[in-house]
Each structure stands twice: as structure tokens, then as C-alpha cells.
Design goal:
Layout: H1 23-34, E1 42-43, E2 46-47, E3 54-57, H2 60-75, E4 86-89, H3 103-106, H4 111-127
Parallel strand pairs: 3-4
Antiparallel strand pairs: 1-2
Length: 138
């Protein structure tokens, strides 16, 4: 059982090459296939503030782009409900425990991976075939 006392959010750290994909392109993927940005403190079966929808920016430019993108999606009623994704400055990133690293790769038959992650990977392949890279681990 989690106590939800740290204020941390489960997240991924993304390092990208802007000559390959723009920050806006990353946002498009985040909002279209990565998760549901309209559920407060929940992603799939996981509940609590550590599962909130969040974008952690590292520059004022990223903040403005993310906020404007969310406003555009809300104005266009892309989702049935209002987007609850928080846009907040990155104060630090803490790597998860080793057993969390590449979990889906090492546990492909896990029911959670099959139900929650595989559909997202398939959607990514289908929606962004030019950007999809079959990950083999580090």
C-alpha cells in the first residue's frame, strides 16, 4: 500500500533531439496515445496523486507551449471532459528502483502490461509509424 506522502508523480524522463521531433510533437503523442489527461489522480487501474497527469517543464518556452496546447485541445473539445494535466516546473527527477526499469520489456506477459501498456504501444505504432522505434532495452 502506498502512503502518497512524497508529493512525487510517477513519470518518465524524456531526452529528445529537436531535429527529429519537436516539443509540440512530443505533446501530441503524450495527449493522443500515452494516457488519459482528463482523469484526476488516476491512470488506468492506478489511483492517487502519484498517478496524476503532469508535464514537468524545464523552460518558460516549454511551459507556454504546453499550456497553449492544452487550451487548444480543450477549446476544440478533443476529449469528453476537461484536461486536468498539470503543467509545473521540474524540480528534480528521481530514477525508480532497478526492478521498475524496462519493466514491460522484462515482463511482457504480465497482465498489467498486457492490459495497460500493450494497447498504448500498438496505438503508438499505428498513429506514429515514422517515429516508432522498437525498444530493446539499455
Amino acid at each position: 500500500m502506498t502512503t502518497e506522502t512524497t508529493g512525487h508523480a510517477e513519470s518518465v524522463e524524456i531526452t529528445y533531439d529537436p531535429s527529429v521531433i519537436t516539443y509540440g510533437g512530443l505533446l501530441r503523442i503524450f495527449f493522443s496515445v500515452a494516457h488519459d489527461p482528463t482523469t484526476l489522480n488516476r491512470q488506468g487501474p492506478d489511483e492517487g496523486t502519484s498517478y496524476r497527469s503532469a508535464i514537468f517543464f524545464t523552460s518558460t518556452e516549454q511551459q507556454k507551449i504546453a499550456q497553449a496546447y492544452i487550451q487548444q485541445l480543450d477549446a476544440a473539445h478533443v476529449f469528453k471532459s476537461k484536461i486536468v494535466t498539470e503543467v509545473t516546473p521540474l524540480k528534480g527527477f528521481y530514477k525508480g528502483e532497478d526492478y521498475h526499469q524496462d519493466y514491460a520489456l522484462h515482463n511482457p506477459d504480465n497482465p498489467y502490461i498486457q492490459v495497460c501498456d500493450r494497447p498504448k504501444i500498438e496505438a503508438l505504432k499505428r498513429e506514429y509509424p515514422d517515429l516508432f522505434v522498437d525498444y530493446k532495452g539499455q
